[in-house]
Structures are given as structure tokens and as C-alpha cells.
């Protein structure tokens, strides 16, 4: 049953991605309702799949693939919700294929050996961490789109994808709004880790902790640079992507090593 639900989500996401690409390149401009319907159907099916991959009789599965599916589902939720009030539909082109791959891998890969019940404090820490990672994933995609827009404008390419984007100033403002939300969530997540995790620097957590702190410092520097020095453009894009790579390496890199190498 799980595999069929997941395949349905993959098909819906693929249709929505293809239609949005047609729309972004100017080939079909009247498909936004179909994009949203397909995307929402994929999102709902993805949510059902996430529930079944996370919850088991022995506890909650916080393995690499189940958490990847959860994060991509939250990113899809954020983009779909935000698209109803802002012109960010082109993020679907990156978000939906990522979500499709994540939900498929979570469905076909075996359950990890990390199953166990979690206390409310630790579960809150995990939830805040996942929300922060989701926001920063979205901000990294936004930064890539912003970089593509800047490059196209410099080369005087104003058709296709670039023509369908909001003005550069709005794109940049949206990026920093995402960064602020993600930074606050990451800060609370790190604080809750100190409160509810017995030893953040235990052998199986030390890499994740150090890289998360390094990412926090990068985002703090970027936001301070924006506020005090007016950082923008390629500088903001590089710092955003750099912080995201550290954060993902700390989370998914440590899970990959612990589950498949050690």
C-alpha cells in the first residue's frame, strides 16, 4: 500500500513540475490551476507516505530516508502555501522533483535501526531542527533562483524563466525573510538541544553539533552583514548556500555515516 501511495505522489509531483516548466518557459501560460491541483494531490499523498514511513510499532523512524522525505514534504508545504500570496511558483520546478525522489526512496528503502520512542522535550528539539532545515532548504533554492535571475539580467536575457519571476528586490527580500525565520528556528533548536539532549558532543552527535553551530555562525554573520553593511547579491547567495551545505552535511552526512558506514 505504501509504495502505491508514494508512486501516486511521484506522478503528481512530476506532472506539476512539467506543467510549471511549460509555464515558466512561456509555452503554456494557463496551467497554474493544474499545477496547483497536481502539486496539492502529490503533497497529500506524500503526507500519508511520510506518516507511514515515520510511525512504527517499535517507535519513530528517524533514519536518513524517512527524515529526508519529511523535510521535503515540509518544503513542499511551505512553497505551496507561499505561492498563494507571492509569485514563487517557479520554485516548484526544484522542490517537486526533490520531494518525488525523497518520497520514493523512503518507500522502497528498508526501515532503519533507529526505531525508538522519544520524550516530549527531545521530540520538540527534533521537530524544530526539521523545520529549520526545511526553511534553509527553501532559502537555498531561492538563492539559486536569485543567482540565475541576476545572471540573466546581466546578460540581458529577460525572457522565459526570468520574465516570470518577481522583481530582483522582492526576490532578495523574500530570501532574507526565509533566512530570518530559519535562523530563529535553528537558534531555538540548538538551545533545546542543550536542554533535552544528554550530551550534544557524544561520539554519534559531535559532527552534527559542530557543523550545526558553524552553520548558525554563518547565518548570523550573513544577517549581521545585511543589517550593518548592506550585504546583498552574490555575497548573500554564497553565504546562504555555504550555510545550507554545512547544515545538510551535519545532518544527513552524520546519518549516512552512522547508518551505512559504521
Explain what the structure shows.
There is one protein chain. The chain has 262 residues and is mainly alpha-helical. The protein has 8 helices and 2 strands, in the order ααββαααααα. It has a two-stranded antiparallel ribbon. Strand 1 (55-56) and strand 2 form a beta hairpin. The longest helix has 35 residues, at 120-154. The two termini are 32 Å apart. The mean pLDDT is 85.
What labels describe this entry?
262 residues; mainly alpha; two-stranded antiparallel sheet; 8 helices; 2 strands; flat
Question: Would you kindly provide a brief summary of this structure?
Answer:
The protein has 262 residues and is mainly α.
SSE blueprint and pairings:
Layout: H1 2-24, H2 32-54, E1 55-56, E2 59-60, H3 64-83, H4 92-108, H5 120-154, H6 168-196, H7 206-229, H8 233-261
Helix pairs in contact: 1-2, 1-4, 2-3, 2-4, 3-4, 3-5, 5-6, 5-8, 6-7, 7-8
N-to-C SSE series? HHEEHHHHHH
Poorly predicted spans: none
Instruction: Classify the secondary structure makeup into a structural class.
Output: mainly alpha
Major sheet size, sense and barrel closure? 2 strands, antiparallel
Radius of gyration: 19 Å
Helical content stands at: over 70%
Number of strands: 2
Tally of separate helices: 8
Mean pLDDT: 85
Strand fraction equals under 5%
User: What is the general shape?
Assistant: flat
End-to-end CA span = 32 Å
Give the strand line-up of the largest sheet: 1-2
